[in-house]
Design goal:
It contains three helices and four strands. It has about 100 residues and is α+β, with helices and mostly antiparallel strands. The protein folds into two domains: about 55 residues, no CATH class; about 35 residues, no CATH class. The strands form two sheets. The protein has a two-stranded antiparallel ribbon. Strands 3-4 form a two-stranded antiparallel ribbon. A hairpin with an 8-residue loop joins strand 1 and strand 2. It is elongated and about 45 Å long.
């Protein structure tokens, strides 16, 4: 799964499944992903992936649960502290999960 993937590619990969609810989009994230700590945010393509489980890592090797020291070893001077949704306030709330 990579940023910018189309809806068609996400469906083909099993990341999106048909919705059984009339009030939500026709396609929703596979519930198995959410149970595994993966939340997808879509526009016209895959725009954001949130991970809440240390099982998965991003391309750099960063994963949930790493210490600041571990992150500094990956990112050096490029490490920035930001809040939820990229804001500067780590106490700011997150937007609802939507597809």
């Amino acid at each position: 799964m990579t940023f910018g993937m189309s809806l068609a590619a996400l469906k083909q990969g099993g990341y999106l499944v048909a919705s059984s609810e009339a009030c939500v989009p026709a396609w929703v994230a596979n519930p198995d992903l959410f149970r595994d700590g993966v939340t997808l945010y879509m526009g016209t393509s895959l725009e954001e992936i949130r991970l809440t489980n240390a099982t998965y890592a991003i391309r750099s090797g960063a994963r949930v649960g790493m210490t600041v020291k571990d992150l500094r070893s990956l990112y050096g001077a490029n490490l920035n502290r930001t809040g939820v949704d990229g804001g500067s306030d780590p106490t700011e709330g997150c937007r609802p999960c939507q597809l």
